[in-house]
Design a protein that fits this description.
- The chain has five domains: 65 residues, Alpha-Beta Plaits, CATH 3.30.70.100; 224 residues, no CATH class; 64 residues, Calcium-transporting ATPase, cytoplasmic transduction domain A (Distorted Sandwich); 155 residues, HAD superfamily/HAD-like (Rossmann fold, 3-Layer(aba) Sandwich); 112 residues, Calcium-transporting ATPase, cytoplasmic domain N, CATH 3.40.1110.10.
- Helix content is 50%, strand content 19%.
- Strands 14-26-25-24-15-22-23 form a seven-stranded mixed beta sheet, sandwiched between helices. A six-stranded antiparallel beta sheet has the order 6-5-7-13-8-11, with no helix packed on it.
- It contains 24 helices and 26 strands.
- The chain is an alpha+beta fold.
Amino acid sequence: MKKYKVEGLTCTSDAAALQQKLSVMDSVSSVSVDTCSGTICMECTDIKEVAARLKKDGMTLEVSSPLTLPKDVLLIILSASLFSIGLVTMEKFHGYPFSWPEYVIFLISYVVAGRNVLTKAVTNSIHGQFFDENFLMTLATVGAFLIHQLPEAVGVMLFYSVGEYLEDLSVDRSRRSVESLLKLRPAYAHLTINGEIQEVTPETVSIGSQILVNPGERIPLDGVVLEGESEVDVSVLTGESLPRTVTPGENVLAGMINKSGVLTVEVVKDYSHSSLSRILELVEHATSRKAAPEKFITTFAQVYTPLVVGAALCIALLPPLIVHAPLYEWVYRALVLLVISCPCALVISIPLGYFTGIGKASKEGILIKGANFLEALTKVRAVVFDKTGTLTRGVFRVAQVVSMNGFSKDEILRVAALAETHSSHPIARSIREAYADTPNDGGNNPPVSDYQEIPARGIRALIDGKQVFVGNDRQLHEELIPHDTCHIQGTVVHVTIDNVYAGYITISDQVKEEALQTIAALKEMGIQSVMFTGDSKDVAECIAHDLGIRKFYSELLPEDKVKNLEEMEKDVKSNDDGKIAFVGDGINDAPVIARADVGIAMGALGSDAAVETADMVIMTDNLHKVIDAIKIARKTSRIIRENIILVLGVKVVFISVGVLGMATMWEAVFADVRVALLAIFNAARIFRG
């Protein structure tokens, strides 16, 4: 689907109505309207027809700026000028037959100020959508004209249009804070072809091509540095403030800024699969998933507005009919009720609050894929961590080689390294690196045949005509091979040769510095920390003790992690609607990340499967970002609740005094506009701190 920018799209109810109208058009096959980003995603065969449809609703398609400031300001000034003239000359013209000069001045001012509201009210009414804020404002102001309250009718529409304009500015400010990420798309790439440099669009560069990145330029595509050394700014992708030094052989990502030297980079991913492209896609689609309060407000507005209109009719007609009260007075009170009851403050400020929360998280290097997940973070009662690569650095080193049954240490390390030749697992790499650091027979190593990877067990292969197994002791237990079962610190890799236990290799891993702080912070927040690992019980117990984690599960297969998570859910959700978050980084974590209420992937440079499956992506390996995400979610939720209480509280008070005849239409519109702006400014507080 193609994305189009829309001017004048700021209200959720307008977006819902617009989406319904566009979806029934023959030229539009699929459509999605996003209020917060002010865009429409759709497949369309006649864009002119769509533009004409939007124009009827007072919107403009495909503009470079989300606000046409000069035009709006000019029309407001024109309306205000006519309004002022009408107030000054009102008494003079009032004596003429039918007071037509008075009506002409105020009517022109009214139409200029309320052109958008009137257009939307009429258009929506034609399509059977009567009950929205535009209908309420039109009904109230037309009623004021009929009872000869001309200044109040124009004043209500004028100040409402000023309020809408200020709301547009506030919405646009929050929108730009997230859209700033979308401007990170590199406009060009310097492609090297036969020694010549050509400036091309990143989308046209294929994998394996070489590109040149000059100092100050943004790296356009993911790749590997072939030549040059430089510092790169990674803050856009990870939130890290310190630059990173890159040298030949190191990876660089699209979106990083080259700070100093010239780099020659070999492209390893096309643009559509680059890290930056994936980030932008996550941000662009984040607001399409609504949180429960957003869904409630949308439904609330649909039910609330008809009730308000019905209540206004009862107030206008019943007292004069039943107790013979003055018709004029009660009609006026009903019109005040219509003005103050406009739900626009709610339907704008609440989605804007979630949008601002997602934007704040993005600036911190945390990508949250929807408002529903931001809301779910506020209800997290337990966070489950994968061990390797999440709580620990995942940088393994061979700590010890222990031989038994007449085998030598060198032989054990050699066959283990050869067996792990085809494995990309960090433990396998550590064994190969340890073997490379020892004197060996170099290129005389025999080929490895009959290679077989046993899931969650290890590797079996034929080396020197001997059957070799390298892995954990599960397979040894199943084959009833006697082996050392003493308590050993660290990860243990067992080795058998021709079904005889040859010994074991211990692998050490280092706990991340921020892991201890993260676990302590979760405890202070009343959130339980749990560890899942496929490692042995001894290793898991050691790590858990160091970090202060009281509950852990060890020797787990991927399916075991899902099973244990489901068992935990019964306990967590028994007392309240608590949620469980899972934090992991590997392919084997993808199933449990998908199963968790909030799946969190560590590092966008990690497993694609984990990142695509996750509900939230932490762009760095900094575990403390989990705490930051929960704090942002809680602050967002708190401010949104404040807005709901603020808006509904003010409306209840003014509805009450309006019905009692203690408030005028002027006061009603001031209260409505003021509370809408207060709610929007309150939502902007999410960015602070």
